[in-house]
């Protein structure tokens, strides 16, 4: 039994990332049954996708909270503390609650499985299901961790599913084509449960629509069944028009920057309106507008003082969205990138995209065992003004010291890197 949060987190961070020994989801269902199936007490919205899950969850949470709902949100990765992964109305699970539910899981694993623990994500997911069920949340927003079909969260029948975007990622697990990745993500689609889709690629979309059709799941696709347009940029807020068959909203305000965030917000709006039409929730158009006007998400085009941007663009699709947003929000500026990432990603495309607009690129590395070495990242860049330094603190301090009024410092790459830097910057500013 764990007595302190440190003891607990020290242990769970030693757990394997993926459990290869057991058939997928078998242990999850067995342990959940021993916990009296808390997942079956949840009214959930289930989200999968390569990018945009966190921002879409944030938009959903703001809208539902504004309408008076008690909203649980399960997201990953965390930036500073594992507690961040499960919140109710934006408040993190307490250490005492986390310990309580962790010890219930540990007791079952020790008693029934000889202490052979499942993966880190499975354990955290088991904690989340108990927490949200016991707290009787009105709606649980649940992100997948990896893929969808075999993901630890895929033991629920949600009110509605959302698939944000599809790109090549985790190819060893999800497959090496967009169609294969789409097949895995579409595994969250359930019989007769509506699914909202933001995917643009025809290769991916064809797979998703076929699976939705097989499962008699109404499929609402961005650009086909609902649209966004008439985007106007303002000071710290952008506005857009939203339209679907039976609804139209004009000049919707959005705090989060970038066209990709408009797309994410439109997925959230469509899910909310669909649930409203089905009688599952009660929410006004005014609540939707007011909520989106204040929705923000840490580490996603997060604008700090002195023109510092933090953005966890962990793949080429995310990097492309980051660059488009930079050009819109900071036109005619010098873009000075600081980049670090994990070794399990394909960095060449992301770095090539940054090379295309960067005044300079500084490569560094995260303080994790699977960090990509800074010099290996630098070798992928063709930028004539590049440098590498394994010590990211030195790198950031040097960059901040050298910057001028035309410079925008863009710190990007892995969200784990963003987490390290974000915490450090906050401490430096105290």
UniProtKB/TrEMBL annotation:
Enumerate the spans annotated as Mur ligase C-terminal domain: 299-414
Select a single GO molecular function from the record's annotations and give it.
tetrahydrofolylpolyglutamate synthase activity
What are the UniProt keywords, alphabetically? ATP-binding, Ligase, Magnesium, Metal-binding, Nucleotide-binding
> A cellular component term (GO) from this record?
cytoplasm
Matching entries from Pfam families are given as: Mur_ligase_C (PF02875), Mur_ligase_M (PF08245)
Top EC class of this enzyme: ligase
Domain spans labelled Mur ligase central: 48-271
Q: Which reaction does it catalyse?
A: (6S)-5,6,7,8-tetrahydrofolyl-(gamma-L-Glu)(n) + L-glutamate + ATP = (6S)-5,6,7,8-tetrahydrofolyl-(gamma-L-Glu)(n+1) + ADP + phosphate + H(+)
Supply the Gene3D superfamilies for this chain. Mur ligase, C-terminal domain, Mur-like, catalytic domain
What PANTHER family does the record point to? DIHYDROFOLATE SYNTHETASE-RELATED (PTHR11136:SF0), FOLYLPOLYGLUTAMATE SYNTHASE-RELATED (PTHR11136)
The family annotation for this protein states:
Belongs to the folylpolyglutamate synthase family.
Q: What is this protein called?
A: tetrahydrofolate synthase
What species does this protein belong to? Lysinibacillus xylanilyticus
